[in-house]
Amino acid sequence: MFKQLLIIIFIMFLPFQIFSKSELIIVKGMMDIGKGPHPAEKGFEKWIGAGGRVHLNNLTSKGLMSYSIDGKEVLRVNKMSWALTIMDSRNNGMIVGTFEIFPEREEEVLWVGHFKIEGNNGFTHGFLWGVGKNKNEGKIIELTFDEDERNYSKNSKNPNIYFINGFITDQPKEPL
């Protein structure tokens, strides 16, 4: 009797995602944000706040993402709109904004979402959360990214390379 009661209690507290038919796809790869952010055509602002930090509004960047899904390599274009950037002289700070991910030829958007980047002594790491569009409708993508150590080399021609890890799965029907 105790065993059956314990099983019932255990099942009641498990999230519904465990019992749903979600396919979890692991994503691993690299991301390059191009030559870094550029001022947006409209609304760019820059100022120094009372704490001595540089504040930037409305930057854009366009780069490439390469990752594998079930052993198949895919190449994507990543467009980011940096809504707010706050950095001090030691490259500590944060960046928040939105992104769009396209196929290589940019014919239709595959993912849209938002991101947050933290910078500590020049080393950056961040998170992207997105929802599928067009052929990815009904799916979500969640990625973490960390700066590649090669970015710190004096011989690096592109200091904007990041390792990405994450997953793609079905969008939950209800919040937890």
Q: How would you explain this protein's 3D organization?
A:
This protein is mostly beta strands and 176 residues long. It has one domain. Helix content is 9%, strand content 55%. The chain has an 8-stranded antiparallel β-barrel. A hairpin with a 5-residue loop joins strand 3 and strand 4. The longest helix has 12 residues, at 2-13. The protein is globular. Residues 12-20 have low confidence and may be disordered.
What order do the helices and strands come in, and which of them pair?
Layout: H1 2-13, H2 16-19, E1 25-32, E2 38-39, E3 45-48, E4 54-69, E5 72-87, E6 93-103, E7 111-120, E8 123-132, E9 139-147, E10 161-170
Antiparallel strand pairs: 1-4, 1-10, 2-4, 3-4, 4-5, 5-6, 6-7, 7-8, 8-9, 9-10
Strand order of the largest sheet: 1-4-5-6-7-8-9-10
Q: Please state the structural category.
A: mainly beta
Low-confidence runs: 12-20
Mean model confidence by pLDDT: 77
Silhouette:
globular
Q: How far do the termini sit from each other? A: 30 Å
Rg on CA atoms, Å = 20 Å
- How helical, in percent, are the residues? under 10%
Share of β-strand residues: over 45%
The count of helical stretches stands at: 2
How many E-type strands?
10
Largest sheet: number of strands, sense, barrel closure? 8 strands, antiparallel, barrel
Key features of this structure:
globular; eight-stranded antiparallel barrel; 2 helices
TL;DR of this structure?
With 176 residues, this protein is mainly β. Helix content is 9%, strand content 55%.
